[in-house]
Amino acid sequence: MNYHSFILLILVFVINLEICFTKTHYPNITCSENDQKALIEFKNGLIDNTNRLSSWTGQDCCKYDGIYCDEKTGNVVKIDLHYNNYLLDADIIPQKVLDNQVKNFLGGELSPSLVRLKHLSYLDLSYNYFASIQIPKFFGLLRNLRFLNVSCSGFGGYIPHSLGNLSRLEHLYLGGCYSNVLGPENEFKVDSFSWISRLSSLKSIDLSKFVLVDSKDLWNSINMLPSLLSLNLEGCNLVTLPYFTQVNFTSLSSFNIRDNAIRMNSENPSIVPPWFCNLTRLMNLDLGQNYFDDSISVFEKLSSLRVLDVSGNGFGDSLLSSLSKLNNLVYLDLLGNDIHFTNLCLLGNLTSLSVLKLRYNELKGPVPEALTSIFCRLSVLDLSDNEKISGLLPSFIRNPSSCIENRLKELYIGNTKFDDFFPEGMSMHENLEVIDSTNSLLYGEIPNSIGRLSNLRFLRLANNKLNGRIPSSIGQLSNLEELDISKNLFTGIVSELHFAKLNKLKKLYLSENLILNVSSNWYPPFRVKEIGITSVKVGPRFPQWLRKQSILEILIMSDANITDMIPNWLSNATLFMTTLDLSVNKLVGGIGVLCDAQLLHSIDLSKNLLSGRIPSCLSNLEELRSLNLADNSLEGEIPCSLGDLPLSFLHLQKNNLQGKIPSSLQNLTSLQRLDLGENKLKDVFPTWIGEKLQSLELLRLNSNQFYGVIPLELCQISSLCWLNLAGNNLYGTIPRCFSNFSCMSSGVMYGPGEVFGQRVESFMKGIPLEYVGEQILLLRILDLSENELVGRIPNELTKLVDLQYLNLSRNNLNGSIPKKLGYLKHLESLDLSHNKLSGSIPQSLASLNYLSYMNLSYNDFSGPIPTGNQLQSLDDQSFYVGNPRLCGKLIKKSCNDNGSSNVSEQIPQGDHQDNDDDGDERKWFYAGIGPGFCVGFLGFLFILYELRNRGVTRVFQCWA
C-alpha cells in the first residue's frame, strides 16, 4: 500500500469516527415511522436489479443494509449505498464487463423524501450509475449533511448551486472516473464555483477528473475556505496555478494537483507559486505528472511534509538541496525527473525517509557506496527503468549485515544493467515483500534459501540470465501473489512441489525450456488470474488442471507441445478471460467452442493444425480486438460476421481461405493490421480498403489471386507502414501517390500498444523472415513483387525516406532507377530483379549505409557498378547477372574509357537462361559478316568499271 492510500484510509477512518454509529450498542432502538416511510419512498424510486436493498422491509429501518441510526434516538443519520466497483478506476473496461457490472449499480430517480430525514448527516451514493441525471437540487435542503459523496456515480448536467446551502458540510466528493466509461453525457458541467465559497465548514473537497475550462472562479472560491484540510484537483486540465497575494487555506494538510498540464508561460514567471510557502501544515503534496521544472527553494518551508510526489516533471538535482531540510519526510517519489547519483547524498539528513522512488531518472554507473547509509533506512527502494545503472548490486542488498537495521520490504531494480549473480544474501532480508528485477542482467541460480522469505508477495525475475533448476522451496512462499520467472535460461522439471503452498498466487509466468510435470488429476492450490507459459513442455494433452482456474483473465500457453483438440470446457474457463494465446502447438479440429467466450479481447491460435471453416458465431465475441488464426488449415470463405466485431488486428494469413474479402470488413474502421496473405482469395482489388480502413498500419494481401490495378484510393491510408501486395495478378503502374504514406516518410510510430498474437512473416533479404511483437512496430516495408506491373519506378517513392525494405522484383517495369533512390537512408533490402529496367545504376546507392541486400539481376542495366561504403560488402555476383552491359571489378569485367562494358570480355558463366538469346544474336552476327563483305566488295568493283567507261580513269591513276 502506498502512502497516498494510507493517508486516504486515515482520512476516511477519521470521518467515520466522527460519525460513529453502530447497530449493536442499543439493539432496542428502532427508527421513527417518519424515517422508515421516507426510506421506502426513496427505495421505490431506485432501480435495483440485483436486490441490493432486499433487506429494506419491515418497520425497523435501522436494520436496513446501508442505513445507520443514532444509538440513542434511533434517528437515521447515515445512508451508505456506495458500490465497491473497482472497475470504474481502470483506464479501459471491456463493454461486456461493464454491462455485467452495471446491473449491480443502483440507478433510477432520487426521491425528495430524503429531505424528511431531518438528522441525516452522511450520504454516500458513489460508484453507482444514475444515467446522467442531474444531482437533485433538494440536496441543498439536507441542512445537517456533513458528508456527501457522489463520485463516479453517473450523474451529469450542471452541479446545482443549492449545494452551497449546506453550511455544515465538511466533506464533499464530486470526483469522476478516469476511464470515462459512463460516457461524456455523464460528466458534470460547471457554470460557476462561487457556491463553494459558502461552505464555510468544508474540510475536504474532491473535484478530481473535472474538465475545468476556467479555473480562476474555482481558486477564488477555495481561497475563502479557511478550514480546508484536503484538496484534490487531480486530472482537472489545469494549465496554471493562481498567484494569490494572500492565501487563506493555510490549514491544508493534503494537496493533490496530479496529472494536469501545469507549465510555465509568460504570465507565470515562477512555476511553483510563492504562496506554497504559506502551506506550512501540508503533510501530503502531489505535484506528479505536470511540467514543473524550476529549482526554487519553496519546499524548504514545508517542514511538515511527510509525503511528496513530484514524479513525471522536470526537476533536477537542485531540488535535492531544498528537500534536505524536510526532516519529517517519509515518502519521496522522484520518478521521471533529472536526478543523478552524485547529489543523492543530500538526502542523508532525512532520517525518517522510508520510501524512495527513483525510476526513469539519469542515474548512471555503479551505485556509490556513500548511499548505503540512506538505502539502509528504506523500506521501499525503486531504482528501476534507469538503463544506465551498471555494475554490481548495492552492497546492502548482497549483504544485509552492512545495515544496522534490516527494513527493506520492496526492491525494484528492473530494466537496469546490474550485472551480478542472484545473491544468497537476498534471503536475509526477512521483511521482503517485493523483488522486481525484470529485464536486468542477473545470472546464476536462484538459491534454495529463497524459501525463507515468508512475507514475499511478488517475485519478478523475468528476462534475466538466470539458469539452473528452479528451487522447489519457492513452493513454500505461502504469501506469494505473483511469480514471473519467464525468459531466463532455467532447465529441468517444475513439479507440484513448486506450487505446494501457493494458495494466494494470482499471476504465474514460467520460463522457456522447462518441463511442467504434474499428475493428470492435480488440483492446484491456487486460483490465478494470469498464466503465461511459453515454450514450456505442458502437453501432449490439454492440461486438465486449467478447469479449476475459474477466474482466468489471461491464458498464454504458446509452444507448449499440446497435441489435442480445444476442449469444450474451455468456454467455462474463459468466463472472465480477455486474452487467449495457444499459438505454436498442434491443436486440431475446429474453433467453434470459443464462440461462448464473450469477454475475449485477444485470440491467438496461429501455427496450429486447426481445420474447417471460421465460424460465423465468432461475432458473439463483442469485445474482440485481436484475432490471429494464421498458419492453420482453415478453409472456406471469410465470414461476413467478422465485420460486426470491434477488431483492431486481424491475421488470417497462411490458410486455405477462398472467395472474396467480404465487404462487411469495411465496417472495421479501427482496424490497424489486416493480414490475409498466402491464401486462395480471388477478387478485384477492393477500393473500399483505402476509403474505409484509414487506420491501417499493416496491409498484407500477398500470394493470393487479386487482380486489377492498384486503386489510387489506397493512398488515402497515410498511416500505412507495411504494404505487401506481392504474388498477385495486379497490373498497371505503381501509383505515384504512394508518397502519401507518411509512416514511411516521417518516422511516425504505430498507434496503440501491442497486444498478444502479433506475428508477421515477409520474404525479405532473399529469405523468409518472421517478425514478432515489438519488432513489427519498427518496420517500414513496401513489397509489390511478382505481379504484372508496368511503367517506370515513380520518383515519388524516393520521398519514403524511412523505408527499410523495397521489393519491386518480377514485374515488367522499365526505365531507369530513380537517381535519388539513395535518399532512402534507412533502406536495408532492395530487390529490383527480373524487370526490364535499363540505364546506369545510380551512384547514390553507395550512400545507403544500412543496405545489406540488393538484387538487380535480370534487367538491362549498363555501365559500371557503383563502389564505396556499404556496396563493397554486397559482393555476390548473382545480384547482377542477366545484365550483360554492366562492368566493374565486382563481376570481373573491365570497363572501357567511356565506362561501357568491354565486349571482348567473356560474359560470366551462370547466365544460362537469360544469356541464350544473347548467344543466338552473336551467332547470327558472325554468320552475316562473310556474305556481307563479298557483296560490298563486288559493288565497289562495279563502280570502278563504270567510272572508267565514262573517261575518269585518269583520276584514279593519279590517286594510285
UniProtKB/TrEMBL annotation:
InterPro entries (UniProt xref): Leu-rich_rpt (IPR001611), Leu-rich_rpt_typical-subtyp (IPR003591), LRR_dom_sf (IPR032675), LRR_N_plant-typ (IPR013210), RLP23-like (IPR046956)
Claim: DNA-binding is one of the keywords in the record: no
Location of region: Disordered: 899-918
Segments crossing the lipid bilayer: 924-945
GO biological process: defense response to fungus
Subcellular compartments: Cell membrane
Domain Leucine-rich repeat-containing N-terminal plant-type as annotated: residue spans: 33-70
Signal peptide: 1-22
Protein topology in the membrane: Single-pass type I membrane protein
Keywords carried by this UniProt record: Cell membrane, Glycoprotein, Leucine-rich repeat, Membrane, Repeat, Signal, Transmembrane, Transmembrane helix
SUPFAM superfamilies reported for this sequence: L domain-like (SSF52058), RNI-like (SSF52047)
A GO cellular-component term linked to this record: plasma membrane
Keyword match Transmembrane: yes
Family: Belongs to the RLP family.
Protein name, per record: Leucine-rich repeat-containing N-terminal plant-type domain-containing protein
Organism name: Capsicum annuum
